[in-house]
Amino acid sequence: MPPMPQAERHVTVHTDGSCETQSGDGGWAYLLEYVAEGSAAHERLASGYEAGTTNNRMELTAAVRALEALTEPCRVTIVTDSQYLKKAFTDGWLVTWQRNGWRTAKRQSVKNRDLWERLLELTAEHEVHWRWTRGHAGHRANERVDVLALRARRERRGETLP
Description:
The chain is of the alpha/beta class. The chain contains five helices and six strands. The chain has a six-stranded mixed sheet with strand order 5-4-1-2-3-6, with helices on both faces. The longest helix has 16 residues, at 140-155.
């Protein structure tokens, strides 16, 4: 991404994950949208495939990969159709899980702890705001990442597009 003063850089990230329950084949995708000072809007798309996974892992992986793609601290709005992902941050689930030694209210180990810990590291580098959108409801960017995640899963590969 082109250099820009930190206070002015805002990136909107759209994420999605996809998983076929029987096979465990999964896909993730993200779309980064940003405007560089004095120029037109830019976007970057990426997707990937994972075997032996779950839909929730793919939702989290999409957010991890998107935040890893940022090269400097930014104000970030992450738009997801995953309540699991959003509410962990906005409803205090992560704080409670950590306080309870990474245990749920039912004293079970928190699933996907590795990805949650990575997300905590990455979100500490940015000013992150979370927004939820209903999946498969005509939201343009959400539909784009949904198609990419599904394609990555079905084709068992990913891609990065400028």
